[in-house]
Amino acid sequence: MKTIELKNVSKIYKNGVKALDNVSLTVKQGEFIAVMGQSGSGKSTLLQVAGLLDNCTSGQVIINRNDVSSLNKNLLADVRMKSLGFVFQSFHLNSHLRAYENIMVPMLINPEYKTKSEMKERALHLAETVGLSNRIDHYPGELSGGEQQRVAIARALSNNPDFILADEPTGNLDSKNEIAIFDELKRLSTSGKGVLVVSHNDAVKDYADRILIMKDGVLEQ
Ligand code: ADP
Ligand code: ADP
């Protein structure tokens, strides 16, 4: 069983703000976990620390049984590439690349893919799975918000990670697209990926297997 485990994790920023206060959490494959809570409660920090985008001040982060504090920079990058996919509120697409090229970006650093045509083939397949086949040659500026977020999800899937971490993935979307994105994330969790979504959108409650509330850096279970 693949897992992300946080054990007694605290995060104090340089300015003295304690954004995470003794947080423990396990995300398993096939599980959709939603973390809700007010703005400033520490949700983004939780995702950044669980996703190895930032380090914690104390406690342990264990991904697929690797205690990440024991890994050097290269191994950390390797775990991040192979095990984790990220989706952000503001999509974070490269506006100079077409949809399928955006999806290919993470594959460029994955030695598993040898040729551009192999990467493109996989990108097209992923675009199809998120319902974007007819938009693959478009640039982000030519796509709606919902379409851009589907490109971002396909990109998060490009290296076939065990986990998808999403930070307010519907924050910039209308309610129709909200549903489409949560549906897509749910599909991924039922297909065996672990999904950790940070959101203050009530709609996520209809999708999550577990809903956790973050309050002043404390995760209420
Ligand atoms: P949320 O995602 O729930 O809005 P955040 O994790 O972004 O909460 O923020 C938690 C707390 O940490 C807030 O008080 C915020 O101001 C503070 N914070 C977030 N990022 C930083 C940072 N890089 N440096 C200092 N303080 C930060
Ligand atoms: P979706 O249901 O995917 O959000 P919309 O109904 O919002 O799609 O938009 C339909 C079409 O209009 C999209 O396929 C897209 O090509 C175009 N479109 C919508 N919003 C934008 C935008 N902000 N910029 C460029 N094109 C857009």
UniProtKB/TrEMBL annotation:
<dbReference type="InterPro" id="IPR017871">
    <property type="entry name" value="ABC_transporter-like_CS"/>
</dbReference>
<dbReference type="InterPro" id="IPR027417">
    <property type="entry name" value="P-loop_NTPase"/>
</dbReference>
<dbReference type="InterPro" id="IPR017911">
    <property type="entry name" value="MacB-like_ATP-bd"/>
</dbReference>
<dbReference type="InterPro" id="IPR003593">
    <property type="entry name" value="AAA+_ATPase"/>
</dbReference>
<feature type="domain" description="ABC transporter">
    <location>
        <begin position="4"/>
        <end position="221"/>
    </location>
</feature>
<dbReference type="InterPro" id="IPR003439">
    <property type="entry name" value="ABC_transporter-like_ATP-bd"/>
</dbReference>
<keyword id="KW-0067">ATP-binding</keyword>
<dbReference type="GO" id="GO:0005524">
    <property type="term" value="F:ATP binding"/>
</dbReference>
<keyword id="KW-0547">Nucleotide-binding</keyword>
<keyword id="KW-0813">Transport</keyword>
<dbReference type="InterPro" id="IPR015854">
    <property type="entry name" value="ABC_transpr_LolD-like"/>
</dbReference>
<dbReference type="Pfam" id="PF00005">
    <property type="entry name" value="ABC_tran"/>
</dbReference>
<protein>
    <submittedName>
        <fullName>ABC transporter ATP-binding protein</fullName>
    </submittedName>
</protein>
